[in-house]
Amino acid sequence: MIRVLGRQTSGNVQKVLFLLEEIGVKYAREDYGRQFINTNTDAYRKLNPNMKVPTVVDGDLVIWESHTILRYLAALHQPALAGATPAERGADFGAQSADLVAQLKILDGHIGGKSWFALDRLTLADIALGPIVARCLDFPIERPPFADLTRWMTGIQSRPAFAVATGAKPSALNAA
Ligand SMILES: N[C@@H](CCC(=O)N[C@@H](CS)C(=O)NCC(=O)O)C(=O)O
Q1: Which CATH architecture has domain 92-165?
Q2: Is a pLDDT exceeding 80 seen at residue 19?
Q3: CB of 37 closer than 6 A to ligand 1?
Q4: Where in the chain is the domain with CATH 3.40.30.10?
């Protein structure tokens, strides 16, 4: 069963509860945050690096950021709630921009003082993030400079393989 970690009095938790109630999905809400003083633990930080509520745990999947949670639940149970067409979904641009900035902030914090996202060397973490983060950093939204993430991005972009993958250079391997 979906676990919703977050105090009932949080507006961001209430968004998630509102949706779950609307779509009739069973859940277990657990008291986390403010007066419960339990979001500042290592265990909670592992679930949600922002150490805020809500956090949703669905099996092995852990999701934070209330609007990301809403989109996840809607996609799973009632996609039309997110807007049926790109034009309908575009109405959510402000909220999505705020989510994006929050997520880039987490990546920027993680890469601070480090060259790679995991294991002190190039791993699949960098490869999976590279093309997506490159796009996200290019989005025309107001955001902090994210100096550490930008440094990592510059390193990734200097790799010939990345240049090929993103169409900036021809491939010597692609036989098509
Ligand atoms: N952008 C985050 C904001 C989360 C947030 O700021 N949550 C507040 C409650 S509304 C919080 O965790 N406050 C500290 C606390 O309750 O311990 C989201 O949408 O989930």
Answers
A1: Up-down Bundle (1.20)
A2: yes
A3: no
A4: 2-82
